[in-house]
Amino acid sequence: MARTRKQGSANYGNQQMTAMCNEMDRLAKFEEYDALMLDGLHKDIINPDITVEQMYQKYSKYAAGRGISIALTEKDVKAALTALRDVQDRAQGKPTEKKEVEHRFAALTDNELDAKLLSELDDMAEEKE
After folding, report:
1. Cβ(58)–Cβ(43) under 8 Å?
2. Angle at CA 25, nearest 5°, toward 21 and 29?
3. Residues 50, 44: contact at Cβ < 8 Å?
4. Three-state secondary structure along the chain?
């Protein structure tokens, strides 16, 4: 059975109505987020008893979710991923890289070290002359 023009318009109208309802649902979710999350965040910011570390712990899931949201929707992916990495570093702490360094004179005895210092001083004196 062939569709009439009127049936095609009705389907298009239904699709438009569905899209508008979906957007209204998204707006309602954001308003709920805004009312609950941002209000709580504001209260924590002005509360002198809450430390920065406590705020990072409390809001780390929200920050991760926001970072992922930005990474998935942002047109500039590089900037979005940099922002996500920054948020993760703040929320979870930056990993530290331990590096063992041994000084080149660490194995010298005191007498050998004194001789090396005197030799260097002599070289410096000769360069000045």
Report:
1. no
2. 170
3. yes
4. CCCCHHHHHHHHHHHHHHHHHHHHHHHHHHHHHHHHHHHHHHHHHHCCCCCHHHHHHHHHHHHHHHHHHHHHHCCCHHHHHHHHHHHHHHHHCCCCCCCCCCCCCCCCCHHHHHHHHHHHHHHHHHHHC
CA distance 24 to 47: 34
Tokens of 5: 């023009």
**Is the entire prediction scored with pTM above 0.70?**
no
Question: Residue 67's closest CA among 82, 46, 51, 49?
Answer: 82
pLDDT digits (tens, 9 = 90+) for 74-110: 777 787 778 777 767 766 666 666 778 888 888 888 8
Over residues 40-62, the pLDDT tens digits come to 888 888 999 988 888 888 887 87
